[in-house]
Automatic annotation (TrEMBL):
Signal peptide region: none
Keywords, sorted A to Z: Hydrolase, Metalloprotease, Protease
Biological source species: Lysobacter stagni
Listed name of the protein: Metalloprotease PmbA
Metalloprotease TldD/E central domain sequence ranges: 129-235
A molecular function (GO) term: metallopeptidase activity
PANTHER family the UniProt entry points to: METALLOPROTEASE PMBA
Keyword presence, Lipoprotein: no
Length: 454
């Protein structure tokens, strides 16, 4: 089978094509009377395979493109998009955006980000590492991962499958300020999910590895064995008595707590007054040692970028320092709605690092002593308006700093504002598979709903 037929090939040549296209579209918008305009063009390609119980289930090769045009007639905005590069389709897309703008009402916050904020130092961050793998080789890796997991423990009775994926993306953002920004990136993954036990006693868990370069991935056998160990460790779970306990969120779960913070301090939630952290900038939300920093220039970072989705230059910046929320997460529109300045976060944050104040995972268990280790969260029980938090969970009961037995069928509950202030430690066991880098997080006390008695 030929190597990865969906590859974008010469990425720089593809970027040149998209950059030229963006300029033509901007000129077309200007000719139709738009006072400002912006264009986003992207091309993506990918290969994914899935296997289960030693058999191939799916092989998928994809190639997509997207072109979005936004125009402004004063403070009126219109947007349209297409995937068709034919001239008549492109002209129709610009015309449609202009027609929408002519019929919308003025919005005082509408418009491009300010011209003097546009990025001028445009760099790459070692994010382009195509994996020239064909479908046969990808299938072999997935099969090897599943087999290694099934052979690792005799209690592994079934499989939910293994998968290998690889993707490439090139994109250009341009606007009528004269800004043209180019980005290219790759991402690759290998995952395995296994089932331990029989009948009603079955437990499922898995593992995955993710990176911008295939060289950063764990081996197929390692992924399979970790999936097996995690699934088998959950067999014969118990419940625990309902009560208030310390709760240690394993690192891959801990980043969800940061995610709730980000959602609550994002501009859209704030100007709609739909957040429990309205007017919280400058307030002490965390212990005085707690810190989160944004690092947009990390080499091979998952969200490294010289500019945000509006062309604004990114910058190193604290989000939380000394436990105090330093700022919000704003693009230009939400910033204007709030009477503030953009934080160069249109499109999201760029690599967050939560500062550790404790040791590795074992040290975190020792520090907790007795309590609940959460390794899985279920459901969407978070109210962003009030901060109330209630989610199904599974994990392990800990005594004397040692894992004793698995638990499931429980609920952990609290209020995010109280949970943030009750954080006692952040571990050095950072999960590097995300743009939010944090170790495990220990919350000193939460309500855990389980059995009604011992």
């Amino acid at each position: 089978m030929p190597a990865y037929a969906a590859s974008l090939g010469d990425s720089q040549a593809r970027l040149d094509v998209l950059a030229d296209l963006s300029q033509r579209l901007l000129e077309s918008a200007r000719a139709r009377g738009a006072t400002q305009a912006e264009v986003s063009c992207s091309e993506d390609s990918g290969l994914s395979v899935n296997v289960r119980m030693g058999e191939v289930e799916t092989v998928e090769s994809t190639r997509d493109r997207g072109i979005s045009v936004t125009v402004y007639f004063g403070k009126r905005k219109g947007s349209a998009s297409t995937a068709d590069l034919r001239e008549d389709s492109l002209d129709a897309t610009v015309e449609q955006a202009c027609a929408i703008a002519r019929h919308t009402e003025d919005d005082a916050a509408a418009g491009l980000a300010e011209a003097d904020l546009m990025a001028t130092d445009l760099r790459e961050f070692d994010s382009w590492h195509p994996w020239m793998i064909d479908a046969d080789r990808a299938i072999d890796l997935a099969l090897a991962s599943e087999q290694a997991g099934r052979e690792a423990d005799s209690r592994i009775a079934n499989s939910d499958g293994a998968s290998v994926g690889t993707g490439e993306s090139v994109s250009v953002y341009a606007n009528s300020h004269g800004f043209v920004g180019r980005e290219r990136s790759t991402q690759h993954s290998l995952s395995c999910a296994l089932i331990a036990g029989q009948g009603d006693a079955m437990q499922r868990d898995g593992w995955y590895t993710f990176g911008l370069s295939a060289d950063d991935l764990e081996s197929a056998a390692t992924v399979g064995r970790k999936a097996a160990q995690r699934a088998a460790s959950r067999l014969e779970p118990r419940q625990i008595a309902t009560g208030e306990y310390p709760v240690l969120f394993a690192s891959e779960m801990a980043r969800s707590l940061v995610g709730h913070l980000l959602g609550a301090v994002s501009g859209g939630a704030l100007y709609r007054r739909a957040s429990f952290l309205v007017d919280s900038a400058g307030q002490q939300l965390f212990p005085d040692w707690f810190a989160i920093d944004e690092h947009p220039f990390l080499p091979r970072g998952f969200r490294s970028a010289s500019f945000d989705a509006e062309g604004v230059a990114t910058r190193e910046s604290p989000l939380v320092k000394g436990g105090v929320l330093q700022r919000y997460i704003l693009g230009s529109y939400s910033a204007r709605k709030l009477g503030l300045a953009t934080t160069a976060n249109a499109g999201g944050v760029h690599n967050l690092q939560v500062e550790a104040n404790a040791g590795d995972f074992d040290a975190m268990l020792q520090g907790m002593g007795r309590g609940l280790l959460v390794t899985e969260l279920m459901g969407q029980g978070v109210n962003t308006v009030t901060g109330d938090y209630s989610r199904g969970a599974a994990g392990f009961w800990v005594e004397n700093g040692q894992i004793q037995y698995p638990v499931d069928g429980i609920t952990v509950a609290g209020n995010l504002k109280a949970m943030f202030s009750a954080i006692e430690a952040v571990g050095s066991d950072v999960d590097l598979r995300s743009h939010v880098r944090t170790g495990s997080i220990l919350v000193g006390r939460m309500t855990v709903a389980g059995e009604t008695g011992e």
